[in-house]
Amino acid sequence: MIAALFDRKYIPIAATLAVLILLFVFGAVRYDDRNFASLYNIVGLFRGGAVVGVAAIGATFIILSGGIDLSVGSVIAFTTIFVATLVSPEVGPGWHPALAIAAALGVGTVFGVMQGCFIHFFALPPFLVTLAGMFLVRGLAFVIHEQSLGITHDFYTSMQMAGVPLSRGVLLTVPVMVLLACYALAIFGASMLKFGREVYAVGGDEASARLMGISLARVKLGVYGLGGLTGALAGVLATVDMGSGNPAEFIGYELDAIAAVVIGGTLLTGGVGLVIGSLLGTLIIGLIRLMIDNEGTLSTWWTNISTGLLLFLFILMQTLVVKFTAGKGRG
Amino acid sequence: MTADQAPPLLTIRGVSKTFPGVRALDDVQLTLRRGEVHALMGENGAGKSTLIKVLTGVESADGGEMLLDGQPIRPNSPRDAEAVGISTVYQEVNLVPNLSVAENLCLGRFPKTAGVIRWGEARRRAQAALRRLNLDLDVRRQLSSYSLALQQMIAIARALDTDAKLLILDEPTSSLDDNEVDELLGVMDRLRSEGLGILFVTHFMDQVYRISDRITVLRNGGFVCERRTAELPRLELISAMVGKDVAALEEQEAQARAGHAQATQGETLLKAEGLGHTGVHGPMNFEIEKGQTVGLAGLLGSGRTETAWMVFGVDPAGSGKLKFDGKDVNPGSPREAMALGIAMTPEDRKAAGIIPNLSVRENIVLALQSRRGLWRRLSKARQRELADQYIASLNIKTPHREQLVRNLSGGNQQKVLLARWLAIEPRLFILDEPTRGIDVGAKGEIEKLIRVLAEKGMSILFISSELEEVARTCQRVVVLRDRRQVGVLDGEGISEKAILEMIAASPTGGASKEAAHA
Description:
The complex is a heterodimer of chains A (331) and B (518).
Chain A: H1 2-5, H2 11-30, H3 39-64, H4 72-87, H5 97-121, H6 126-144, E1 149-150, H7 154-161, E2 163-167, E3 170-173, H8 174-192, H9 194-204, H10 206-211, H11 216-242, E4 244-245, H12 253-263, H13 275-295, H14 301-329
Antiparallel strand pairs in A: 1-4, 2-3
Helix pairs in contact in A: 2-13, 3-8, 3-9, 3-11, 3-12, 3-13, 4-5, 4-6, 4-11, 4-12, 5-6, 5-11, 8-9, 9-11, 12-13, 13-14
Chain B: E1 8-19, E2 22-33, E3 37-41, H1 48-55, E4 63-68, E5 71-72, H2 78-84, E6 86-89, H3 101-106, E7 112-113, E8 116-117, H4 119-131, H5 148-160, E9 166-170, H6 178-193, E10 197-201, H7 205-211, E11 214-219, E12 222-228, H8 234-242, H9 246-260, E13 268-277, E14 281-289, E15 293-297, H10 304-312, E16 319-324, E17 327-329, H11 334-340, E18 342-345, H12 349-352, H13 360-372, H14 380-393, H15 410-422, E19 428-432, H16 440-455, E20 459-463, H17 467-473, E21 476-481, E22 484-490, H18 496-504, H19 510-517
Parallel strand pairs in B: 3-10, 3-11, 6-9, 9-10, 15-20, 15-21, 18-19, 19-20
Antiparallel strand pairs in B: 1-2, 1-4, 4-5, 7-8, 11-12, 13-14, 13-16, 16-17, 21-22
Helix pairs in contact in B: 13-14, 13-15
């Protein structure tokens, strides 16, 4: 069992965890005077990462299966304005938020499955299908409502106020609990459900997986459907966070999600990676942002520069690990 | 053990299949009995692969019938075929390398409670399946951490775990060494005595005669004959496969022997002096004369391909000298080597040579066009002329020059690749395993082609793992072992036996072997 911990497949995730801890310790020492290592900041990382983190779950499964999804940012924006409009009694029908959220999750899932259909049945490249999806959904979001629309409803107010108090002034909010619950489910699904293992198999060798009797249609439609669902859920969390919907927001979030997945140790070529890594990746990106905020003198664009450098580093490391693994496998 | 009265397990009658432009199967029949190893033999393009695809539901037949245990079957997918009791192990291990051994054995049929996988039981079942083949592995480890031979065994264990009645082994031994082949044949023997029917597709004649009870021969998509192995002499089998009579084959052999005596012009084209990488490879010392065919012989991993790479600039030599046409050269890239007039067809024609989605014509003109540069385009007429010329002179079997290369058989793909390099008229042509995975007939044609090219003054560096073929084709053989040159044979001194003796001669010490593996 101990030996299993040193299995090669855990090298990338170990590196991710090491980076997260190192960054955190570095920040704790450097910004000690500002109480960097406080519980408030730690919970803040989860709060800030909830939207990208949930979207990254779907992205993880899609990337594990050997695909990619560029439509997530648009799906998030669409969901926010979709929910806001449905709830609003002035511009929309004035539904109860719970009903609106359920509808949004359904629409997101159906949209994802449709992308999966194009990819699987017409053998189209996922990059292009989801690129088209990205434009389509962004456009649809503006069709629903052209600008930001506030959500005022008791249900939302109570959701925004609710939470488990951890200590004075620190609240485990609803989005954070949803984030953690989603990861728990996703980790379970990836390791203990047939679907999860089939996703890994298809990403590892699609042709072999087919010959082993796996239904490619189920896997592909499944992962893209899941991508749509988690994208929509991320959008719902965003409405709770913002208290409004906005069709123009969340541009580039699909790339944040992909970055979180890759920094989390999942290979873009598919088949290798762990779901928990994407949560760690999300936290790392948030941590970099927090440190640059604390630095004070640096502009926020340094977040992008650091994330970029980190991505380079991780891609390089993964290539080396793959080479190393291949060399060993022959023995 | 295979009395004729035993009830047939599998009966195939009148099965046909047509692909665009190719009649892949034409009224094929096959009868396989319980507890028998049945060899399916034929050249590439004979229809073996298509027949297996039809049997396993990857392709559907246009006509005919298939009976398993007397029941008509018509599988639509590999899964369907498995459900009725037909399991297949393919040439390339068709498992998923990034998952554990247990997962590979259980994928598609995990034991579950309320949708949740029971890992404990999955591991136990995997172990039990492996034990049937006398294997005791850690099923939690990744598949890719085991050798190819073990992966092949794991694939067989998976195939058997479905209550298979019929096991199809499609070229299972092509990447195994001798010991591993022995082990696999042992497993086949045991499975046969358990009453399983085994359909064995292979190019290795020795293995067919060691293990099979019966042989069915296909040619050009049609049925040729079905015979008991013990009653079919080798020469007759070969003649059935290639469709030539025995006398013609003997003549071919005689022609080959004459090749040794072939005169060369006596001028040196390429001279390697101490070529190698210090401590890792070499030093290599050999000469290739104009119009001479020189072989590189040795076992797998002995450094044959690596030597060719140094000459072709893929992996420039770290030490030693290379003289080409009297001048010192050290090609730093394939481009530089090509500029000198050196061409090479790589070992793995699918990965590093043929472009399956281009036509025969486009594949043939590729190297020539690339050397001329993009701005001096070969005219369509010239391209057509070139393609037709090589299709005729190399006897490439294709309906027309615009056929996509992926639709051709392995042997014909190889010929297209040869044509591509011949079109730039190289002075030295390096052929790395040009006959791997192609059938006897196409092999013979490629050997003949090599002789014709040499007669025209082209020098050839020929690599093959089949020592018999090296001995037959070359006028000089450089023998390698563990990335060291261990000797050179010339002219009359060349024979399979002499090469083997040189490879087997006691090494200077165990140390060199260790170093090569490190």
